[in-house]
Amino acid sequence: MPTDQINPFPSWATDQEASPTRYSSIPTPCSMRHKSLFGLPLKSFITGEVVSDETLQAYIDQAVSELEHTLDLYITPVTFSEKHDYSRHQQFWSFGYFKVDHSPVLTVNRLTLTFNNNIGSVPLIDIPIEFVHVQPQEGTVQLVPANGVTISGFVVSLYTGLGYHAFNSQTLSHWPGAIHVEYTAGFPGGQLPALLSGLIENMAAYKFLSSLGPVLFPQNSVSIGIDGTSQSVGTLGPAFLENRLADLEKIIEKQMEAAKGYYQKRFLVDFL
After folding, report:
1. pLDDT along the chain (272 residues), means of 10
2. Domain segments of the chain: what residues?
3. How far apart are alpha carbons 42 and 50 in whole angstroms?
4. What is the C-alpha separation between 109 and 184, in angstroms, rounded?
5. What pLDDT sits at residue 212?
6. Closest C-alpha among 55, 103, 36, 100 to residue 75
7. Does this model's pTM top 0.85?
């Protein structure tokens, strides 16, 4: 069985009750129409065609992908299988410490020691999942077993004044790719931090208006001819579009700064 699902925000806290301001979900075309694009004429002034949900969804998907690459995290849950080196000397003081490649960690599904080069091979040791301790934002995994547990020649014991001797092989000090871990990274549905949800929506709105704005906001007045007669019609115009894009850019910049401050601090921790 995998570890229990980990609270994605903040990683060290437990909610006492649901908070509508802390969590949200990935934006939808409907939410964009009612928030970031509220009140805007979402149809072509040339053809009269209304902007479809499929079009708005495409810009949401672009924003999600860009944010994942910028912050080096996953918005929706994705399962990974990875190999990491086993080092007795490196892990002696660190409770079997190693770091997975992706975050935030939602669950660890399986952790094994497999001493060959193929993921999926029969493991030498299948680590009990209840031993696994995870820091979700940092993506770090450690083992905290019961005192004196021995598994297939690997002794995990408590030494007075020394700490856990996790993964203490009696014959080997280093084994490349021996640690195989299967885990899920990302945020569960409906529990995306509100900051990231708002950032995705504003990024999607900015991309949408930058691309299709000239079709939605033509010159300030245009002349429409019908059956030999013409009528001048006023529109919001390109100046309105430029102001809206400038406002979105400022909001996105502040939200991105806050997101980087929280989610990228793990790189500083790793460096130190």
Report:
1. 59 54 89 92 83 96 96 92 79 72 91 69 76 86 68 43 45 75 89 93 95 74 54 59 91 95 62 38
2. 23-74+190-271, 78-185
3. 6
4. 7
5. 86
6. 103
7. no
Which position has the token pair 């072509």? Answer: 44
CA-based end-to-end distance of the chain: 34
Q: Which residues contact 218 (CB under 8 A, 6 or more apart)?
A: 45, 46, 235, 237, 238
Burial 65-78 (b: 16+ CB within 10 A, else e): eebbeebebbbeee
Cα separation, 185 vs 45, in Å, equals 43
Q: Which amino acid is at 40?
A: L
CA dihedral 254, 260, 263, 264 (to 10 degrees): -170
C-beta separation of 154 from 148 below 8 A: no
DSSP collapsed to 3 states, the chain:
CCCCCCCCCCCCCCCCCCCCCCEECCCCHHHHHHCCCCCCCCECCCCCCECCHHHHHHHHHHHHHHHHHHHCCCCCCEEEEEEEEEEHHHHCCCCCCEECCCCCEEEEEEEEECCCCCCCCCCCEECCHHHEEEECCCCEEEECCCCCEEECCEEECEECCCEECCCEECCCCEEEEEEEEEEEECCCCCCEEHHHHHHHHHHHHHHHHHHHHHHHCCCCEEEEEECCEEEEEECCHHHHHHHHHHHHHHHHHHHHHHHHHHHCHHHHHHHC
The Cβ-side half-sphere exposure at 211, using a 13 Å CA radius, reads: 12
